[in-house]
Design a protein that fits this description.
mainly alpha; two-stranded antiparallel sheet; about 65% helix; disordered N terminus
Amino acid sequence: MVSIGHASHASHVSRSVEPGIGVSARRRSAVGRSMAAAGVLLSADVHLVLYFDGFSDVKVIGPAFLANAVGGFVIGMLVLLWRHVLTLMAAAAFGVATLGAFYVSATVGLFGVHETFGGNQVVLAEVSEWVAIIGAVLAFTGERRKA
């Protein structure tokens, strides 16, 4: 337990501080985890909407969108509820894999689907996946421990 306060104030604010992690690192961790979870959850939502808006009929891609939605929901919740480096790795991997599949689909095609770089859902998913990656990296920098 560490006391934080000013000499001119009679009262002190006590807060639990994790050993080896300062206030700015805790803030980076909290903001990064929030960003990573929001990015993953939004991407999962977009893929679920797209699944029900017609991709459910597309072989391979339809089930992949549904798996993306379910996996994204689980990963997003884990990032928020379980403070472990594995959840950050999962969020970053989710973002990279989903972006990678989209870029392959938009350039050369993927399982017979040739996506375009436009439309609200596409832009929303792409931005959310970048947010997930950046958030996971930011959280990791706040949580890493000095040896």
